[in-house]
Amino acid sequence: MDTKMVSKSDFKRGYREDSIELKFEEKSCSPTVWRYAVVIVICVAAGVGIGYYVARALQTDRTEHSPYKHPQVLHGNLSQPSLFSPLSEDEINSVVDYCRRTNITSSDRSVPLFNRNKIVSLSLLLPSKDAALSYLDSGGPFPARFARVYVDRAQENSPYFAEYQIGPLRKTRMTHKVLRVIADYDRRPRTSSEAFQIEALAEKELEKLNDLLQECFGGIVGKGRRGITRFRISVSALSSEHGRLSSLFLLIPGKLSSSDILPVFATISHGGLDKSKWKVFDIYFFRQGPFANAEKLIAAYKSGTLELFKFPKGYVDQIRPSRNYERHTNQPLRKHASKRPPKTVEPEGPRYTLTGNLVDWMGWSLELSVNNYHGPAIFNIRYKGERIIYENSLSDLTLLYSSLNTGAGMPLTILSDEIFRMAAFANVIQGLDCPEYATILNIATFSERQQAAFSRQGVCIFEADVQRPLWRHSGKVRSGMNNNYLNIRFPFSLGNYDYVFDFQFYLDGKIGTYATASGCLYTAFWFNDDETVGPEKSRTQFGFRVAEHSVGSIHDHLFAFKVDVDVVSRNNTFEKIHWRGGEVSEAIKSQTNRTLNISGIQFKNIRYLGYEKLKKENGIKIDSKPILWTVINEKLRNKWGNFRGIKIEHTQEYQEVLPNDHPALSAVPQMKYNIAVTKHRDNEEFVDSFQYDDRRLHDPIHNLDHFLNDEGIENEDIVTWMSVHFLHLPSNEDFPMTTGAPKGFLIKPLNFFDETPTFDMPQFDVYSNGTILNNPYSVNLNPYSSAEEIDRPDYV
Questions:
Q1: pLDDT for the residue numbered 23
Q2: 3-state SS, residue 730
Q3: 333 — phi, psi (to 5°)?
Q4: Of the candidates 370, 385, 397, 387, which has an alpha carbon nearest to the alpha carbon of residue 503?
Q5: Is 599 a residue whose pLDDT tops 80?
Q6: Is the per-residue pLDDT at 2 higher than 60?
Q7: CA-CA to 351 of 20 to 30 Å: which in 272, 434, 538, 567?
Q8: pLDDT digits (tens, 9 = 90+) for 687-700
Q9: pTM
Q10: Region 42-56: what's the mean pLDDT?
């Protein structure tokens, strides 16, 4: 029994009045009446008080934000990680410990991290597809779990970068083998420890320009007296056939610093590990240069030969109020804006279950995963027990900017967010990234600086209401079905942009994959007397003016997805269905190869379908005429004899405009295509290797073009590589913050079923006189409503 200390006040609150006998000695009638009166007054006062309290509580419930207590999602336990689940914290730390014990990495803290053998990143190394499907479909053994570990071997006599396979995980005895060696050390991936060293050297060199910067822009680089503006240094990789180069920009500090770039640009060479050989060179000031170093530029400034560009006095302080995330108080608040908006709720709790990273919902089953470099992935997607997709994963996110001025686009600015390691999550903001009722999952990731694992609340799962019917029909009975879907959402924060990736699963078998970009712009410098711009100075050939000295440079966000479609089995065929127009005789001949005269045809021309199987691997561009992309299983037919399959609908309607020999298209060939189809190979895991290739655009290690080598793909295990372009022409509505629009693709069943698969779900049926036949979810319907009588032809 627990013994607790009880205070006198606690004792009094717990004291039972009926435990003793109360005796009143009545002396006269008058005191008795008085006592009754007091009791009545007290009761009335208490009643008034309680009434006021209840009314106040009800009013507070309407006006104050009180969280709704949502029922918990159903969870199941796993004795071990599932097949595709990302590495856990324990697994990551066991790999870190193994690498130290086997001297793959070093724990000698007397050596700076930059110069030390260290892990840069690690992720689950996927098993072969044969092994995975043997386990999933045939009761084969569970494939051992291994980690792919990216290691910077900086302490070797000839430093190099390597990828290791380490495992089996969760076993007492682990081993390792080398998967890849990058002998050209200067093409190693970007690391945070190197970025710190670059910025330190850049600051030391550029602070020599402080007299110039102070006079022209009212600030300095490096340390200075309190209250003075300190400009930020931005570093961006440059492609080069020799050495390791990056570009340097100066930014006005603030929450939106990438939107305010100074007309100062330089190049830094930082190859190898000997920082004494690093140097800043080719410095430009307001399009003048290149100056070999800071001393040369400052000499031109002091001699008066440098043309100066100056901000108005106090410029930085003047623009500061508009460079934040807060509501602009100079604008009146919209009417009723303070009232809480409508929200979806789960009245009886979640309708999905979670077992580890396995998700089940309304006939769907799938497993979510993450790769540290490449981002989110969904595996083994089944609907009603049959596999539709083996893998749907983000593979790369590339941006190409255009400008002639300092900042975005100058010089060639091609960025891949892969270099930032796209699974370096920021915590989900519940109620913003995801509804308040969503389930939040922790994802383990890796800290290069700490050489240890840590977790983020990185993924959320929720069921959403589309707020329109999945289907409806009005006649003698008005009927329909609600359109709900399960959403698995991955929010990311990568530099100046934030992204949200949604994988959506619908009741009728559709799968939506969408990416949404938001955040603050990466701009280019603007000035009124730019001789490369025509008389209309508010807009240039590269974008609109969005701020005092900023142009919103045109750019794209290219999302590359790997979609390994398995229509029930691995043997599939890619077929294009052309939506054509022509004479009736052409339509007949396209199928029968015969010329027939058909009587009774009112019009000479007609629309018809043409079917074209893709026989070999190919990259496909969106055609100006309508085409349906489909993947079919020619060995499986539905009840009506049709091949079972899926069709792919793209949100995009345009192609790339750059010529194919542009360096960006050579390095990132997915820019050339809207979809590419290849035969599955276990070693063709990702669309490119941009973490190595961003500095060697001319010589990529591997990319999509390497996969397209004319292998036959009829009745084969095929992979579709989806390229989703978001072409962004920033306008004033994108400043100070860009509002995003989703881009992506939709996968729909194509004769996969014998009929619509939704008739195993409850639906609404309401008679025309208002009688409710079926009301599956107890929604309040008006019992007096009736079908509107409309004078119209009866087509039935």
A1: 32
A2: coil
A3: -70, 135
A4: 370
A5: no
A6: no
A7: 567
A8: 999 889 888 888 99
A9: 0.87
A10: 51
374 sits in which H/E element: none
**Other Cβ atoms closer than 10 A to 451:** 18
Of the candidates 388, 399, 414, 423, the one whose C-alpha atom is nearest the C-alpha of residue 501 is 423
**Is the pLDDT confidence value at 633 over 70?**
yes
Q: What residue ranges of the chain are covered by domains with CATH 3.10.450.40?
A: 192-322
Q: Determine phi and psi for 420, rounding to 5 degrees.
A: -90, 0
Residue with tokens 């590589």: 721
The neighbour count for residue 374, using CB atoms within 10 Å, is: 26
Residue for token pair 């942009």: 497
Read off the pLDDT of residues 492-518 as tens digits, 9 standing for 90 and up.
888 888 899 999 999 999 999 999 999
Tell me the CATH number for domain 352-750.
2.70.98.20
Residue ranges, CATH 2.70.98.20, the chain: 352-750
**pLDDT on residue 674:** 94
In sequence order, what E strands does 604-654 have? 605-613, 618-620, 627-637, 643-650
Is pLDDT larger for residue 753 or for residue 477? 753
What is the SS3 assignment for 280-345? Answer: EEEEEECCEEEECCHHHHHHHHHHCCCCCCCCCCCHHHHHHHHCCCCCCCCCCCCCCCCCCCCCCC
Instruction: Decide yes or no: CATH 3.30.750.210 for domain 192-322.
Output: no
Among residues 343, 389, 349, 347, the alpha carbon closest in space to that of 366 is found at 389
Segment 305-361, tens digit of pLDDT: 999 999 999 999 888 888 888 888 888 999 999 999 988 888 888 999 999 999 999
Say whether pLDDT at 80 is over 90. Answer: no
CB atoms closer than 10 angstroms to residue 81: 19
Distance CA 255, CA 323 (A): 6
Token pair 């276990």: residue: 682
pLDDT (0 to 100) of residue 118: 97
DSSP state of 670: G
Amino acid identity at 723: S
Residue 351 exposed, middle or buried by CB count within 10 Å (0-12, 13-18, 19+) = middle
Task: Supply the pLDDT for residue 493.
Answer: 84
Structure tokens at 96: 């870190």
Phi, psi for residue 278 in degrees, rounded to 5: -75, 150
**Element containing residue 136 per DSSP (H, E):** helix 129-138
The half-sphere exposure of 597 on its side-chain side, counting CA atoms within 13 A, is: 1
- The pLDDT assigned to 422 comes to 75
Asked if residue 208 lies in contact with residue 295, where contact means CB atoms within 8 angstroms, the answer is yes
Query: In angstroms, rounded to a whole number, what is the distance separating the alpha carbons of residues 775 and 743?
Result: 35
Phi-psi region at 731: left, alpha or beta (left = phi > 0; alpha = psi -120 to 50): beta
**573, 629 Cβ separation under 8 angstroms:** no
